[in-house]
Structure formats: structure tokens, C-alpha cells
Amino acid sequence: MSNRTRRRSTAGCALLAALLTAPLALASPAAAAARTPVVDFNGDGYADLAIGAPRATVSGLTSAGYISVVHGSSAGADAAHPKLITRATTGVPGAVKEYDSFGEWTTARDLDEDGYTDLVVGGYSTPVVLWGSAQGLGNGTALTGTAYQVAGGDINGDGHADLVANIGGSLQVRFGPFTRAGVPASTDTLDFDDEDGAQAFTVGDMNGDGKDDVVTTHGFEEMQYKSRFWAGTSTGLSKTYKTTGYYTIGGVIADVNKDGYGDFMALEVDQVSEVREYDAGAVRVVYGSAVGPSTRTAKITQETAGVPGVSEAGDYDQNLGDQFGYSLAAGDVNGDGYPDVAVGVPGEDVGSVREAGSVVLLKGGSSGLTGSGAQAFTQSTSGVPGVSEAGDNFGRSVHLADVNANHRADLVLGAPLEDGTYKDSGAVWVFRGSTSGLTTTNIASFGPSSLGAPQKGAFFGLAFAD
């Protein structure tokens, strides 16, 4: 068992939340829920992929990190024309630094309202915003301050994209529109006590008022606190909160039952520890209402009827647990109007192959999120490229996006510990959505080698931009 997967810190929790967060903007309860904004850097109508490889060596410097952009097209992910972006790329502010981990987290929104999606990229140095254009991402601007996580949304409901930043325990809302100097229209800060700071957060509209809300994860040392709901208002985030009632990490908000209220899905953990490596894993669903989190909840595991597999915990000495729910993403895979949820299970054993990893798709519907019709895939599934190998962590990151613009979300899945020419170079798979769910027909698979990007220890596919 690798010690690499055991490391946890506040920044690490923020990274996990960045992988899990997939905000969804909702209209009023009486109206249909809006689609998640399409990440479209070149404005051609196809969802593009921004793939983080934060451990890659760049310009001879270890863990400097980079982003690979793969544009969408009518044929799917266009891996034949990738774009590599590092801090050494012309127009990108800052210098390449050892252990900067550029690409550790990303978020995408049209910040300057020119019709092209922009990309905010961070690591351990000052984050930057890369501006979209007809040619894709180009010149960038440094944003002020250090941030451990940034996510997009519309907190005050004015129609302009906002950024929510974790700036060391406090949350700062930077209201759009933004100038090309990276300056927001205004800011608002939500402060916490030193022992009570936000480790991570999720953005989305749970109360259906057209303003995005925030759910925060909290803990101190080895104690977890129940996650908290902060309502979005016309002036920013409310300064009072309502608990979700559960101990969770990260999460995703999507209206899985189409009642006009966003539902919160997250990895449920124990109160006494945030350590998840040895857990079998569970997804806690907290359904939304006019007051935010409601009393209607559900717990989904691999023991839930219809969900493939068996919940397996680790033994603290030999192998990890399944970690069902380590990563989450929401999108409408089958085109029925209900968001579905992709669940990463990176610690799943495939036969005797330990921690090879898998992904499970849970279907949304009028009854909410259930195990009915759930699908599961590993690298040993017929039609899936590759081979299940120990420690691949297939499914450690997941993302749902309509790459070929056919009105069905495609699953983008990362295995950052996949070995290529070098150990832990990483790889990504793109499963197509269909009327019956995910299909193994025409799966695209690529890694840094095929994209002409640095390979050695890159952890390619550790993060995707939402």
C-alpha cells in the first residue's frame, strides 16, 4: 500500500473538494433547472476539458505542474490537438517553481462576459485566470492573494459569474463581472474561528431562489464537524448557517429529482476522523428545500439495492477500503432531464488486484438518487481500454460534461496513479453518454505521452475544471 494516498492536510481537503465540486445553478422552483454552464474555452459549443497534472516536472523542476486542454468536438474529445499550459507558457503570469503544483485545482467561468469560458488555475503560488478566446485559452492575469480552492457560481443572483475562494479558512466571494486585470466588481468575506475554518466547500442553489449557496466542510485536528449550509443573498453569503446534519467531505449539488431545489451529495465520514483511506465509503444525499437542507436524506453504498459491488473496508495494514464516493460529479448522462451522479471508487479491488479502482453511475429520477439502473466500470470491463493494475486508483477523479454536444453528458475519469512509460504518469478516459446511460462504445483514452506533455510522476488527471 502506498503512503502517497495517506497524506491529508487542510490544503489536501481543499483539493479533494475541488475534485468533487460541480456547481449547478437553479432557476426558481416553478421553473426548470438550468443546465450547468458549459466549459467552452473557444466558444464553438462543445465542452472542453482542462486536465490537471500538478506533480509533473516542468523545466527540470519537480512538481511544478501543468494543465492540458483537450477541446470537445462532434467526434468527442479531440486529443489530436491538445494545448499544454505551464507557468512557462507565453502570457501566463509567474515563474515555474518547484513544488508549485500548478493545476492542483481549477475552476471555469466566463468572468469577463465576452462569451468565452475563462479558467482559474491554482497551486501553492498566486492563482491566475487564463482568458478564453476564439483560439482557446490565451493570456492570463494573476489574481490577488493565495487560495486553497476557488469555485464559480452566482452567489447574489445578478447573472454575473462570481468566484468563491478559500483564503486560509475564510471564504471570500469575489463578485463579477471581472476586468481583464482580474479585479472583481466587489468582494465579501465570511470569517471563521481558527479552529472552525472551512476545509473545503461546494457551490450550488439548494433553496431554489436563483442564488447559489455554499456548503462548507469543517474539522480540527482529527475531529470533524457537521457540514454547514450558507444561503446566497443579494448582498453575498448569509452570516448565519444551517447544518446539513451530517459529517461530510466535499460534495456536489444537483437537482436529481427535478423539484426545483438543488440536492447535496457528499462523501460521508465519521465524526472522530477525516481519514477515509480505510473506509468502504458512503454517499450521503441531503435533499434541498425552500430553506436549504431538508430532513429528507438518503445513504447510498455498494450495499444499496441496485448498486454493483460490495462495500469493503481496509484493514489498516494491507490495503485501502473501497472509498465509495471519494470523487463525485453530476450531469445528465441519458438525456432524460434528471442529473445523474458519477461516483469514484478508487480503492476498489478488481478480483485479486488491489486498489485498481472503479466508477459507479447512479441515476437521478423523480424519486431522487437511487441504485436503480446503476452502472459500474473498471479497466477490466469489456470495451474499456487498459488493464486493471494494483494502485491505479481508476476513478480517483470524475467529471461529467457534454464533450460532443449531443445533449447527454459524457464521463471523464482520471486514474492519476496509472503507470505509463514512467510511474504515476496518469491517464484519462472519456465514456460517452447515451439514452441507456454510459456506453463502452468509442471510449477515448489518453495520457501525457499521447498529448506530448511531461510524463514522469505527473499525476495526470488528478483534477478537472468544472
Structure description:
The protein has 466 residues and is mainly beta. It is 2% helix and 35% strand. It is built from one helix and 30 strands. The strands form eight sheets. It has a four-stranded antiparallel beta sheet with strand order 3-2-1-30. A hairpin with an 8-residue loop joins strand 4 and strand 5. The N terminus is likely disordered.
Which terms would index this structure?
466 residues; mainly beta; four-stranded antiparallel sheet; globular
Q: What's the layout of helices and strands?
A:
Blueprint: H1 10-20, E1 49-53, E2 66-71, E3 78-85, E4 105-109, E5 118-122, E6 128-130, E7 140-142, E8 149-153, E9 162-166, E10 171-175, E11 186-190, E12 198-204, E13 213-220, E14 223-230, E15 232-233, E16 236-237, E17 242-243, E18 248-254, E19 263-268, E20 283-289, E21 292-300, E22 327-331, E23 340-345, E24 358-362, E25 375-377, E26 397-401, E27 410-415, E28 427-434, E29 437-446, E30 463-464
Antiparallel strand pairs: 1-2, 1-30, 2-3, 4-5, 5-6, 6-7, 8-9, 9-10, 10-11, 12-13, 13-14, 14-17, 15-16, 18-19, 19-20, 20-21, 22-23, 23-24, 24-25, 26-27, 27-28, 28-29
Output the structural class. mainly beta
Strand proportion, as a percent range, falls in: 25-35%
Average pLDDT rating: 90
Distance between the termini: 31 Å
Poorly predicted residue ranges: 1-36
Rounded to an integer in angstroms, the radius of gyration calculated over CA atoms is: 20 Å
